[in-house]
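Re: the 362-residue chain
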Amino acid sequence: MDAGEFATWLCGMDRLSAEQRSTAMARLQALHSAAAVTEPELSASQARAESPADARAATDGGPRRSKRSSPPDVLGEIGQAKVESAGCPHCGAGESAPWGRAHGLRRYRCKNCRRTFNAATNTPVARLRKRERWAANAQAMIDGVSLVKVAQRCGVHATTAFRWRHRFLAAPALDKPQRLNGVVEIDETFILESFKGRRSGLSRPARKRGGKAKHPGLFFENIPVLVARDRHGATIDGVLPEDTAACVAAALQGAVTSANQLVCDGGSAIRAFARRRAFPLHVVAAPGKPNKAAPDIHINNVNAYHGRLKEWLRRFHGVATKNLPNYLGWRRALEAWGPKLKPEDWLLGALGQGPCQHLTLL
């Protein structure tokens, strides 16, 4: 079992039932007893294999001091796969050669620019310490637990857990499909503006545990979030500074073209965006359900995504608006990876190798 698997195993211990814990303890005690039986034989073989230098050191006053071991490389094959697919982080060349290890990480040397690097070079997690606990943090992000529970699982301070969360979310927040295909459902949802974490300079009294909006929909306290989703599951979202056609175009980042068929429920900004670019647009009556004449023209998929997003965000009791793009990327990555998501996948996403390339251009 490598370091990543061991950290994931430890993370699951707090979810064991009483019966499961007793079974696990009995199994561990049996393994310990078996190891104790064979320990004298191992000691004898080690004594026979002991070098004369070690024997002299023992007689001179004790065993020789061994070199300090490096921390385990929890990236392992994940880092190797990232280097092979992304190439050199300095020049982008694809050919590199192994170049030893440093600080517990494998290093490589680019055959083009001759510079050395590791799997985390020029990524948001570069120079982040305690790599042996990254797998536990990745599993906590998959589970979507609070910062307090993340700190308990990883054995770090809550402020460290907060910093890790957003370092691990920096790359997934930017990992979006390059293109959407076929029918594209576009709709806006609104999330209450939040200054969570700010201690001073508020223009209004502080809310408790998230709060509720005074009015639904387009209102000065609500932040518009645009979501565009095709029928293959590829999703693009973004926080709109204003509910205008220009902001819609900036959020979509050119992923929608005239080859797509856009479907919306009549939002003025989306209609203006489609009209200015002469994109085919189908407007359905709110809430966007299909009718008998056109059963494929609806926005049920994007409305369902809105519901899952808001239900998932509720556990955080309000998300600071400045951090909202990171949380959108978090949810988007969970949806794209699917139910078989593993800590190794999330670590790969934190290194800039996210899941969107698996869903685009189908």
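The beta strands are 96-102, 105-110, 116-118, 183-192, 222-230, 235-239, 261-264, 281-283.
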